[in-house]
Amino acid sequence: MLLDKNKIFITGILGILGSVLVGIGEFLLHFSPHIIGNADNYQFFQFVQKNSLITGHFLAVLGVPFYFLGYYHIYKMLEKGNKKLASIVFGLGILAFTIGGFWITSRAFLGTIVHLQNDIDTNIYQEILDNYTLISESLVQILRVIILLLSVFFSITILKGGTYYKKWMAIFNPIVLLISVFTLYFISPQIGKYIAPIAMNVVHFIVFSLSLYQLKKINQLSI
């Protein structure tokens, strides 16, 4: 039992590590002081330095696999309540960050294309961006749908009881936190601009942290 809880703890820490690594990487890939008002045609990338694109790319790619371990942590936290539902959450988590991983690998290359826009024929440049939007940016919309489904199953499993989570944890599901991050951006863009580019990582940093907090409480009660 102690060994199992140690495994749950370690995978939770690795999940947080994933959210930090991908978060830093994505911040380097996407953030600039001019991000507000330059979203059309990905123009914000022209203000991101080449070194930031390269460093951000490799940090983000390095961090993605840790998300899989983080979702194993969540699976183990839910498993006692309902193994079938916990497995669905785990499977959706793996799917979400497999798709997210494919998407993140495209961003540095897209940034490079934006940097070279003056050297590319205007029509060809626009066609490249349109194809990117269809092929890669559509993955973000798929990812958000999967996170929505995952959040529903996550919350239902917790509310059914028997998991390692207190029932209030159902409120702190990924989709609610994601909506909260973007709400902050629209209410206060000057603050939100720092976290909106890394929203999914901020969300999972909170989820994994709260999860470990509750595991720690359980361990204290067991002593």
Q: What would you note in describing this structure?
A:
With 223 residues, the protein is mainly alpha-helical. 77% of the residues lie in helices and 0% in strands. It contains eight helices and no strands. Helix 1 (2-30) packs antiparallel against helix 2. The model has no long low-confidence stretch (mean pLDDT 92).
Helical stretch tally? 8
Quick one: how many beta strands? 0
Report low-confidence residues grouped into runs of 5 or more. none
Judged by helices, strands and strand pairing, the structural class is: mainly alpha
Helix content: over 70%
Question: Which radius of gyration do the C-alpha atoms yield?
Answer: 19 Å
Order of helical and strand elements: HHHHHHHH
Give the overall shape, derived from the CA principal axes: elongated
Q: What is the CA–CA distance across the termini? A: 13 Å
Mean pLDDT: 92
How much strand content do the residues show? under 5%
For the sheet with most strands, the description reads:
none
Strand and helix map with partners:
Elements: H1 2-30, H2 50-79, H3 83-104, H4 107-115, H5 122-160, H6 174-187, H7 189-192, H8 199-222
Helix pairs in contact: 1-2, 1-8, 2-3, 2-4, 3-5, 6-8
Structure, briefly:
This protein is mostly helical. 77% of the residues lie in helices and 0% in strands.
Keywords for this structure?
223 residues, single chain, mainly alpha, 8 helices, 77% helix
